[in-house]
């Protein structure tokens, strides 16, 4: 049925390829734009600190620690603002275009109302994003509190905890997206059951699927200075590897929905 679905839905595969290309392009554009902006603001702070006045007597006489404190505060605000945009825009792309690709992949195996399927998968993903976002926000408050109290070890521990929440939450959200045939609530419940019982199987699939994607992505990065034909080739292979992995996971998810 897997091969038959691919043969009969070549037009869906073509649309998925175009959407995957747009998805990777948007994520790349967002990262480049806002990471560059964050780096520029960081340079402003670093330059200010490097030229700062560390003379305690001079500070007591009224000479400020930094000559332009307003620029430093503006840079800090800029970092926070661009960081929110970096995270928020990527989340928006994943929740819209990313989830729609999952819905279209499930549609390839079973014809159904595409927009209802998208709405169901979107609602599931939104639950995970909101829960993860809320927990990580609370953890980051602990990070800032620890930094303010000069507790470097405690702050680092909280950062690791935030990263763990992000990884675990993303894992179960990924599993829920593969369960396209189940309802909203049953899909959420099944995601945790399948995610725990078949964790060795799923992690193995993720690793196997990630190897070619990472390899082609790395070659794509290296090919920036190579021939244009190689750049196009590695771009196509990178997109196809991501798309094929999503199709395989959707096919396996159908078996999980059937209780296999």
Layout of strands and helices, then pairs:
Layout: H1 2-8, H2 10-50, H3 56-60, H4 69-109, H5 114-148, H6 152-178, H7 184-197, H8 199-222, H9 228-257
Helix pairs in contact: 2-4, 2-9, 4-5, 4-9, 5-6, 5-7, 6-7, 8-9
- C-alpha termini separation: 16 Å
From the helix content, strand content and strand pairing, which structural class follows? mainly alpha
| DSSP summary: helix tally | 9
Question: What fraction, in percent, of the residue positions are helical?
Answer: over 70%
Number of strands: 0
**Percent in strands:** under 5%
Order of helices and strands: HHHHHHHHH
Low-confidence stretches: none
User: How large is the radius of gyration?
Assistant: 23 Å
- Whole-number mean pLDDT: 81
What can you tell me about this protein's structure?
It is a single chain. It contains 9 helices and no strands. With 260 residues, the protein is an all-alpha fold. Helix 2 (10-50) packs antiparallel against helix 4, helix 4 runs antiparallel to helix 5 and helix 8 runs antiparallel to helix 9. It is globular and about 80 Å long.
Quick overview:
The chain has 260 residues and is mostly helical. The protein contains 9 helices and no strands. α2 (10-50) packs antiparallel against α4 (69-109), α2 crosses α9 (228-257) and α4 packs antiparallel against α5 (114-148).
């Amino acid at each position: 049925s897997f091969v038959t679905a691919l043969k009969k839905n070549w037009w869906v595969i073509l649309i998925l390829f175009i959407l995957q290309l747009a998805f990777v392009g948007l994520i790349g554009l967002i990262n480049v734009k806002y990471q560059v902006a964050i780096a520029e603001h960081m340079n402003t702070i670093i330059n200010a600190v490097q030229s700062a006045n560390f003379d305690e007597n001079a500070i007591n006489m009224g000479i400020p620690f930094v000559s332009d404190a307003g620029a430093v505060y503006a840079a800090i605000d800029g970092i926070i603002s661009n960081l929110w945009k970096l995270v928020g825009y990527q989340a928006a792309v994943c929740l819209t275009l990313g989830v729609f690709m999952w819905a279209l992949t499930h549609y390839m195996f079973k014809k159904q109302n595409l927009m209802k399927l998208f709405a169901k998968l979107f609602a599931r993903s939104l639950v995970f994003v909101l829960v993860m976002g809320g927990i990580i926000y609370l953890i980051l408050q602990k990070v800032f509190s620890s930094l303010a109290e000069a507790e470097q070890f405690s702050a680092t521990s909280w950062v690791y905890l935030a990263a763990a929440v992000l990884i675990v939450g993303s894992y179960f959200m990924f599993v829920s997206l593969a369960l396209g045939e189940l309802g909203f609530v049953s899909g959420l419940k099944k995601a945790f059951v399948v995610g725990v019982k078949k964790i060795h199987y799923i992690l193995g699939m993720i690793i196997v699927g990630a190897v070619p994607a990472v390899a082609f992505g790395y070659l794509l990065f290296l090919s920036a200075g190579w021939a244009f034909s190689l750049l196009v080739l590695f771009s196509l292979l990178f997109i196809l590897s991501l798309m094929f992995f999503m199709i395989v996971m959707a096919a396996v998810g159908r078996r999980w929905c059937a209780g296999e």
